[in-house]
Design brief:
Blueprint: E1 9-12, E2 15-21, E3 34-38, H1 39-44, H2 55-61, H3 73-80, E4 94-98, H4 113-127, E5 131-133, H5 136-146, H6 156-166, E6 170-184, E7 193-206, E8 212-219, E9 227-228, H7 232-257, E10 263-269, E11 272-275, E12 288-292, H8 299-302, E13 303-313, E14 317-325, E15 333-336
Parallel strand pairs: 4-5, 4-6
Antiparallel strand pairs: 1-2, 2-3, 6-7, 7-8, 7-9, 10-11, 10-15, 11-14, 12-13, 12-15, 13-14
């Protein structure tokens, strides 16, 4: 695209950003020299991101002073100034991907796996404010781009890719057996009576270690799925699914809440350190993060430095500045300092 010619495009947290000059940096406010604008936003409003012209250049070239005001205040706030009230919790959210359920026991035209996965994600999200589900479609697109098959999801190289590309802490794999329906109709009864039963199994896999942290399973009480009348079979199936999800959602939310949280250094640009977690995760401007060598969260051996969060990028990325210790490397791990204010 011609609009991106001679423009620097960087990838942070799996998203593409265009690097543009920050007009506020020259005012001595301590802000970053550059802004990072999502590619889609840049393409739709390219004329708004014109490099500002200095007063001396205006006088020399006769340029209109309005050019220096071409970057909207709204864009500046999007990157640097986020109201503290926009955060609902101090606890950072764990990123999880819930894959579509494998349901080999059902007919090809009657698959419940995808629907089950969506309903389970909704149930867990209602029970916990500490879980952030990553869209599985984005994961599949990345795997396809990198040349991996869906059958390789649990391999160490794919788990490592998900950790570093999306900041995913855990992957949940599901397997569905059923629903199996039993329908009866006696001589005295004019309507059919149906009951359904199914079994759902889940595996929670840690992307950092590659280990299966927990295996969960649930089977609905068959008597509770009883339905009568028109479409009783379908109604019984839906009730069985709802019952199983309710039971499984409680256990899954509890396990995901207990995951160890961390994020990573996504990129480095001069003094600016770019991080693959931001406002959506629950970070705040001013938070202090401890930096550890990649794969080593041991306090004494792995800790390298501390940084302070100074601004946000896009939906869920941020930037920070070094305040103590050695300069981090890309893919180094971060977690909240014990005393977040120091």
């Amino acid at each position: 695209m011609k609009e991106l010619l001679n423009k620097e495009v960087v990838i942070i947290d799996g998203e593409e950003y265009v690097k543009v000059t920050n007009p506020e940096a020259s005012k001595g406010t301590g802000q970053s020299r550059y802004l990072y604008i999502p590619v889609d936003e840049y393409l739709s409003r390219a004329e708004a991101f014109v490099t500002p012209v200095s007063p001396s250049e205006v006088a020399t070239k006769g340029a209109s002073p309005s050019v220096s005001q071409s970057l909207p205040i709204a864009v500046e706030k999007e990157v640097f100034a986020v109201p503290q009230s926009s955060f609902t919790t101090q606890e950072p959210k764990r990123r999880v991907v819930l894959t579509y359920f494998d349901d080999p026991s059902t007919q090809a035209d009657e698959s419940y796996g995808d629907w089950m996965a969506e309903k389970l994600a909704q149930d867990v999200s209602q029970r916990s404010q500490r879980i952030l589900f990553v869209d599985y479609q984005r994961v599949k697109e990345l795997l396809e781009k990198e040349g991996y098959a869906s059958s390789e999801l649990e391999t160490p190289k794919v788990l490592r890719l998900l950790d570093r590309a999306f900041g995913i802490h855990a992957m949940v794999l599901g397997r569905l057996s059923g629903p199996y329906v039993f329908t009866t109709k006696t001589i005295k009864e004019r309507e059919e009576t149906s009951k359904a039963i199914l079994k759902v199994e889940l595996s929670i896999v840690d992307t950092l270690s590659g280990k299966t942290l927990k295996t969960l399973s649930a089977t609905n009480p068959i008597i509770a799925s009883r339905e009568k009348g028109t479409y009783s079979e379908e109604k019984a199936k839906i009730k069985a699914i709802d019952l199983a999800i309710s039971d499984l959602g409680k256990a899954l939310a509890r396990e995901l809440d207990s995951l160890n949280w961390y994020c990573r250094v996504a990129n480095m640009e001069g003094e600016d350190i770019y991080i693959n977690a931001g406002r959506l995760t629950g970070l705040r401007i001013g938070d202090v993060m401890e930096v550890f060598r990649s794969g080593d969260l041991h306090e004494e051996k792995g800790q390298k430095s501390k940084i302070r969060i100074s601004g946000f990028l896009g939906i869920d990325a941020s930037m920070g500045r070094l305040i103590e210790g050695k300069k981090p490397d890309v893919n180094d791990m971060l977690r909240f300092a014990k005393d977040k204010g120091t």
